[in-house]
Hints:
The structure holds 2 protein chains of 2 kinds. Chain A is mainly α. Chain A has helices spanning 8-12, 18-30, 32-48, 77-89, 94-100, 104-107, 126-155, 167-226. Chain A is 66% helix and 0% strand. Chain A is flat, with a radius of gyration of 33 Å. The model of chain A is unreliable at 86-122 (pLDDT under 50). Chain B is mostly helical. Chain B is elongated. The mean pLDDT of chain B is 85. The interface between A and B is large, with 34 and 47 residues.
Amino acid sequence: MCNQRDRLIGYVYDECDASERDEVQRHLETCGECRTEIAGLRSVREDLLAWDVPDHESVWRPFAPAPARLWWRQVPAWAMATAASLVLMSGAAGGAVVHGFLPDQTRTGAQPVEPPTRPVVVGLTEADLSAAERRWLDQLNEQVGAVDARVQKVSTRPQASVVESDHDALTEEVVRLRSENKALVDYVASIHANIDQIRKTSDFRIAAQDAKINNLMQALQLQLQVK
Amino acid sequence: MTRTDEELVALAQAGDLDCFNQLVARWERPIYALAYRTLGREEDARDVVQEAFLRAFRGLRGFRGQAKFSSWLYRITLNLCRDWIRRERRAPIAQMPEGVDPIDVADEHVAPTESVEDLVARREMTEAVSRAMAELPEEQRTAILLKEYHGLTFQEIADTLDCPLSTVKTRLYQGLSVLRRRLERRQSEEASLRRATWESSSS
């Protein structure tokens, strides 16, 4: 057997430097065995092209996008302060406004979650899903808590700092605040929808496995009856 | 402007879910192709693809860019395929199920520009290649898949499979040589069969 064969694979895939390629080409001029080998390798590579992959639908349900930017990072500090003061003056606690739009379950990330029961195929379990859900909700609660803290802080300043000319700006900021909270609620809902989708897919696959097992059991019973 | 994988990964790590969606859209097809050709069954390939992207998402924070994102994804997918084959305790199956006549299948899928005979020949070749590939040792099959269908360099394959460059070359060479012998034997058996059929029909 020719001792140059181990260099042929780099030549066939054109992954060798120029000097090595020249060397192999010179060798091929004198070695019929390696010429046959090269022809064979190229032929089998052509055969491999025949192996198509069937078309398929995407299996991935895209994640819902996160809110563009958290509202309290867009609002200037003076506006935040005056908005909080307005909220206080109108008789509502700052936290009530922030939380008013959130459903109860989104405020308490530490609420007990249904314990994991059955495992889901390919390693993803109900416990994984519940843990992910808890993590997301904890993060959101943390963000809401940070807003509460800031609102409380600015609300303790003297209300004399609010002047008549600021009222329009204050109203505008409160409207924006409400809108941003709505976006936050929608985001939580989209996370729930994503988790539901994963659960449904898992349930479907468990049902398919159950059906397969039933079929096998029936086939086994039939075989036993025949025997 | 199209973002690179590295840019999308960095944004996804910072919490931009849409960037992760874009990575999935970009890589789902190649990952499905790798899983399909490794496992031989569409249903299994779909499950593995879904699990591969879920694992990638969960592991994204730990991905430090030591390898290309695609190499990392390929590695996750190949590990899942290996687990899948072990769990099912079976070898990868070839594409055409037993008892299915390729002519029946071809009649349903013939394109206007392709004769039924050509389509049958192509499907038979697909079946022969997939069967021959399924019989290869796993490491040779994987090296050939990554090289022929995903265009990785020797070095990228070595990084993905965590083995020396010389090992990659050896696996490719040995795998292609075995495939070649099997496909040539098949062609010679078919030629004998055709000759026998012709002789029996003309006598």
